[in-house]
Amino acid sequence: MTLNIFISKIQDGSMKSIHSGDIKDVNKARTNFLLKNNINPDDTTLVRVKYKGDNYKRYSTVDDNHRGVGIVRESTIDCDAMVTLAQNHALFLPLADCVGAVLYDPTKNVLMVSHLGRHNLEQFGGIASVEYLIKHHNVNPENLKVWLSPAAGKELYPLFAFGNRSLHEVAFEQIASAGVLLENVEISSIDSAKNEDYYSHSQFLKGSRKDDGRFAIVACMTK
User: Fold this and answer.
1) Residue 187 and residue 175 in contact, taking contact as beta carbons nearer than 8 Å
2) Please, are residues 44 and 68 in contact by the beta-carbon 8 Å criterion?
3) pLDDT in tens, 20-79
C-alpha cells in the first residue's frame, strides 16, 4: 500500500460549514479538492469534530458502509479520530489551527486521522490515539509512521497548559511517549497562523485575517 496525504489551501475554499448559507460552497469546494487529487467523494468519510461535553478522545473505526458519510451524505459520526483498514477509503479532516495527525502502519495497512487541538492534547490525545490503535488493531507503535499537519505555532498560539509550547511540540511529545519512534514522525514546518495560504481561525478572531474558514487534510491508502 501507498499512503497519500493532501492538504487544501485557501485558494481551494473553506472545507467546513461555519456560516449560515455556506454549505453549498463548502460542498463544492470539498468535491473539487477531492477530485483534483483523484479521490472519489463517494469513498471519503468526514472526521466530524464536535466541541461538546468533556471527552475529546472519541475514536471510531469505519468500514465500507461509511464511505461518503459527511461528504456526499449526512454525517452520522462525531469523533476526534477515525480509522480505516481499506484501500481507497479516504479520511477527511477540516482544521482551524490544530494539528491533524496521520498515523499509518504499513505492516498492517491501518490508517488513522486524528484531530489534536488544545482540548485533545490537554487530555493526552496524542497518547490515546496510539493506544487505540494498539488495543483495537494490534498495532506495534514502533511500526507507525506519523505525519503532523500545518498548525498554528507557539508565537501566536501558545499552549498555556504546556508552558507556552506549540501544538506541534506537545503532539510530538505525546506520540513519542506512546512508543512511536522519533525518526518515524514527520512534522510540517508550516505555521498556519503566519502562512496566509492557510486559514487560521485564531488569527481571524484577532482581526489579522479577512476571511474565516477551514483548510483540510485528507489521507488514504492506495495500491
Assistant:
1) no
2) yes
3) 789 999 999 999 999 999 999 999 999 999 888 899 999 999 999 999 999 999 988 999
| 197: CB partners within 8 A, 6+ apart | 9, 10, 11
Residue at 34: amino acid letter: L
Sign for the pseudo-dihedral over CA of 74, 76, 82, 85: negative
Q: What is the mean pLDDT of residues 148-153?
A: 98
Task: Indicate the number of domains in the chain.
Answer: 1
Cα(113)–Cα(40) distance, integer angstroms: 18
Q: How far apart are CA 145 and CA 51, in angstroms?
A: 28
- pLDDT value at residue 21: 82
Three-state secondary-structure class, residue 66: helix
Band (202; pLDDT cuts 50, 70, 90):
very high
185's torsion region: left (phi>0), alpha (psi -120 to 50) or beta? beta
Q: For 174-189, what is each residue's pLDDT tens digit?
A: 999 999 999 999 999 9
Structural domain for 180, as ranges: 2-222
- Whether 40 and 34 have beta carbons less than 8 Å apart is answered as yes
CATH number, domain at 92? Answer: 3.60.140.10
Please, where are the H alpha helices in the chain? 23-36, 118-122, 125-137, 167-177, 201-205
Polymer length in residues for the chain = 223
Read off the DSSP letter of residue 162: G
